[in-house]
# Entry
Amino acid sequence: MSQPSKQTGRVLVLGEDTRAFLTVVRSLGRAGLEIHAAWCPPTSPSLRSRYISKIHWLREYRPGDPACLREFVELLGRESFDLVLPCHDSAILPLRHWRPTIESLARISLPEDRAFEVAFDKGRTYELAEELRICLPRQRIVRSAADLRSAAGEFGFPFVLKPHASVELENVAARNKVVMVLDQSGLPGAETLLGQKGSLLVQEHFCGIGVGVEVLCRQGEILTAFQHERVHEPLHGGGSSYRKSVALDKDLLDAAQRLMKALDYTGVAMVEFKRHSISGKWILVEINGRFWGSLPLSVKAGIDFPRYLFEMLCLGRTRFPNDYKLGRYARNWLLDLYWFRENLESDRRDPTLMTVPLPRVALEFRHLLMGRESSDTFTWDDPDPAFAEAAQFLRSRFLPRIASRAIVRKQLRRRVQKTAARARRILFVCKGNICRSPFAEAVARTLFGDQVQVRSAGYYPVSGRRSPEEAVAAASTFGADLSGQRSRVIDAGMASWADLVFVFDFEHLEALRVRCPELLAKAHLLGSLDPEGPLEIMDPFGEGYDCFCSTYGRILRLMHLLRDSVLRQPAGHWESAVETDKTISA
# Structure
């Protein structure tokens, strides 16, 4: 079937990664659609894609915050999107929660309620699979330490501990991970996790290769399907870094069809299985009711799920290609580097580890030389996200090491001292402008008086937020008052106003690189003033009073060093606070 002509329309894509999200953006952009992005970290390399026409900096979803919904409703009303397409669970859950309010404003790609409830809850997924007589590992729900130890005795080690859902609406930023308990030593940690969650699924360990059957459905009917097999995956399980396209297995496809039909499913999904490489036995792992990490492979092989989804939902199309290229490979190179090291260092005699013999790993490079392998991130028509991802990786891995060397630290310190000596307008920037940067601003106002103007701001796109109670209490210990602090969002006016900009960690530099690149020439890590301590001052948010005191004590010491560079005069008002900090540190 030939590809349809270019489409017209406007789509809002919500995502964050360089696999599913970036692939959706590219697919729909190549189809001629105007792509907007939101709910994406400012440091995401995907935002460098040439196919993104506009980025909307919306506040992240927080339970009980009506401003989140209000901003989203205003955006939908202003832009008139043909489709809103969430690519990750952290976006899907809020949209489903808001569904009664927003579905009249735009078409939202979400499973219907029952399909969502079953697909996003592993316990309910397995209940349905049992009804349909789909192969599952032995399993049980545990609610107490006694239940957990009984299951360990029944299934033996290792066994798998699964949360009911990967993400919960109460905290969409946190991801609940699957844990493999290898032996008795892992039981205390498993009991702690169980205490936090209340109940968990315990499954017998099944040693097999991950296989995914990916589908586009309309009211339970599969319109097109694709199958991939993992080549490299974390040795104890998890998302794959290298995979290949394979022919549809009739038994796995049949299982996927029965699940989708029972759910009357509409949309895209990936039904994940594990299959033993020798016996051919298989089990169901889960249903991913959204786009999946291996999406770049299916699009490269010829099944363009994002485009087909748009055409089904917005144009009513129901006939799509079902043929695709077999033996095609796709690799996430950065994830694969970690896999290479793990595979090299692991015990190959352990039957529970999904290790790959080294000769076979070496032979896999022939796929790249023969043109059968592609990158998840790099494409010739849109190379910038891959370059940005590689640059971020190199900076995160090597820049802290290089910067920590004495000769480099000395140069960094001289550079910031030289700039500070001329500066009369200083801007402190952190993520939210509620913890680190407002304390630095408060200290600087007292230290510098009228001789230097100071401000603070954040790149998190929400103004008016208060500092946490722990921050206010800790700051008062050092004589600073944050009770009246309200967050400000950095803008072009601040960027042009500042002579000197201080940030607190490398993530802030990455954020400025995207949001305010004109500030990079003025930006310095505040920690570079310190001849010995760590360069980064990490975020104390959520870590408690003692952590805030420790963080603020260090910022205070660095502000004295900055004052010496700017004003070149001895310490005064803040000496008692320094003594207080020494007591806290001790």
Q: What stands out?
A: The chain has three domains: 10-118+208-375, 138-204, 404-585.
